[in-house]
Amino acid sequence: MKNRKLSMPFWCVANPVGDPFGRAIMDRMSSVEIADLLCKAREEKLIEFTSAHDDDLVGWDPHHLEDDLDPSSPASKTLKTIKEKLDAAELKVAMVTCSLHENPLFRNGGLTNPNPEVRMLAARKVMRTIRIGNFLGAEYLTYWVARDGFECQFSVPWERNYRYLIEGLNLAERYAKEQNGSVRHGTIEPKPNEPRGEMYIPTTGHALGLIAMLNDPSFWGVNPEVLQHEGMTGLTAEVAVAMAVHAKKLFFLHVGNQKPGQFDNDLPMLVGMDGIKEMVAVLWLLDRMDWQGHIEYDNHILRTDTAPGKENSTRIRMDFIRQNVENYRMAEKKAHDIAADPELAKMMAALWDREPGMAKILSKGETAEILAAAPDYDKVNGTGLQIARLDQLATRRLLGM
Length: 401
Fold this sequence. Notes:
With 401 residues, this protein is of the alpha/beta class.
C-alpha cells in the first residue's frame, strides 16, 4: 500500500479562526508569509502540494478585473513573489478555486445570482482565477457552491437557476481550454448548507448529476469533503467516495473532521468527538479500489488552541500543519494494516466470494444463463453472515488489540 501525496492549502493555514459568535484570535499573516510557512512544510517533507482561493493570494479589485495581467499591479507582483517561493521549495500548486462568498456583492449567489451584472462579475472573477491557476501551474479549478443557494423557496427562479449554473461552469471549462495552460480539469465540491440555508448542489450525487448536463463532462470531477460536508448531510462519506471512484470522477479528496449533522466544524484530521473509524474506512476502501489521487486538507486550527501575537501566529500554524499530517499518516497506516490483516481478509472473502460460478453468470448478463441457473433459496436464506463479528474484529484492529 502506498502513502498518498498531501496538499495543505493557503486558506487552512491563513485562517485566524473566528466564528459567528466571536472575532478572529490569531494575528493575520500575508499571503507571502503563508507561502513561507508552506514552503517550510515542504522542506520538512510533510506535504507535496498546496492550493488556494484567488482571494487567499491577492485581493480582488472589481474596478480592475484583469489586474493579474498588469505586471505593474500589486496583485501581479505578489503572485510573482509567491510563485518564486513555491518554485524554489518545489511545492506544486494542485488547485485554485474562486472565492464567490466573501465579497458582499455575491450575498445572493455568484454564478446563479438572478442579476446578470452580478453573474457577469462572478464570471470575470472565475476567469481571473483560471489565469492565476495557470500562472502558478495548478492542474485543477474547483467550484465550491459558496453562496449559490437560498433561504426562501419563493425567491428562486427555479426554471433558470440551474441553467445559470450550467452556463457558468461551461464558461469556466471553455476558458480553461482557450487559455491552454496548466488548468486541465475542474471539480465540484458539494455542500448541503452554510453559508446559505440551502445549497443548489448539496451532495456528491447532485454534483455527479450536474456534471452529466455540462458541455464536456470529461473535464469535470468531484472532490467530496470527508468528513465535514458529507457529514453535514447525515449520510456516510463512504458511499459518496465509493460512488465517485466508480464513476471515475474522484479527482482528489478533501479531509478534516466533523460531528455528523452539525454545522461546518472543520476540525483538524482525527481531532474532535467523532470520525476516526469512518475516516480509516474511507482510506481503506480507496486502497481496495486502487484510487490514484491525492488528499487535500480543508480544515482549520481549533479556536481553543489559538493565541494572539506574531510569534504565536507562526508557531501555532506550523504545529497545525504537522499535526494534520501526523494524524493523516496514522489513519493511513491503520487502513493499510486492516487491509493486510489475514484474519480479516479470510472473513471478508467468506462474505464476498461465495458461488463464483453464479457471480460470473450475473456479470455476463445473459438472460438465458440467468434463467437456467438454480440458486438454492433454502441454503442461502438459512445461513447467517456474521457481519457483527467481522466488524468487531475490524474495531479491535482499529484499537490496536
